[in-house]
Amino acid sequence: MAVISKCVKGELACVKAAGLLSLSVRQVKRLKKRMREDGEAALPHANRGRPSHRRLPDAVRERIVRLARSTYAGFNDHHLCETLIEREGFSLSREALRRLLSTQGLGSPSLLRQCWTRHDPGPRLPGL
What we know:
- By secondary structure, the protein is an all-alpha fold.
- The chain is built from six helices and no strands.
- Helix 5 packs across helix 6.
- It is elongated and about 90 Å long.
């Protein structure tokens, strides 16, 4: 922002500013125009801070979490995703489901396996 503000004030040429910012001269001129019209607040992307347009609606998210805690408790991520698609009619990816459940503190259940212990072969026989 400091480079663009110097460019707006006339202290720095657009060509120099473009070189410093690794942008084209046209992009620097476009940023200068936006800064003159709306100030420094206009330089960050306009969608910053807004939720994604592809985000699942809150009602759907709550219903998925409720089902994962009650009806389908104990299902791993892959099986839960397949079941939600087949039985409940949801349309979501396994990764989206995994992210949703991990934010709610529901991870995929893991099996507790016994630790591997080394078998003691006993004393060695001479000559073998």
